[in-house]
Design brief:
By secondary structure, the protein is mainly beta. Helices cover about 10% and strands about 30% of the residues.
Length: about 90
């Protein structure tokens, strides 16, 4: 089987790949069969044709790829540097 992967990007343990949806199960099975302790998962673009990868939003707009910055929503909660929950040890 010839895999039609048009884009493959890897950063440490994160992989971004563009491939036809019908071969995705075969790709995942192939990756997961390499080692018992390593298991890959898959995430598809959402209804808005967007997928967040690392600090970017990758948008599929009219079959063109647009890359934008992605910023996680922050709750404005901080943990003090001096926090030492001795009761947890």
């Amino acid at each position: 089987m010839i895999l039609l992967i048009s884009v493959y990007c890897r950063y440490v343990d994160d992989i971004f790949m563009i491939a036809p949806i019908d071969i995705v199960p075969h790709i995942i099975d192939t990756f997961n069969s390499q080692h018992d302790r390593i298991k890959f998962t898959v995430e598809f673009e959402k209804e808005n044709h967007c997928l967040n990868f690392l600090d970017t939003s990758i948008i599929n707009k009219n079959n063109k790829i647009i890359i934008d910055w992605y910023k996680k929503i922050f709750s404005d909660r901080y943990l003090s540097f001096f926090f030492n929950p001795s009761y947890l040890s």
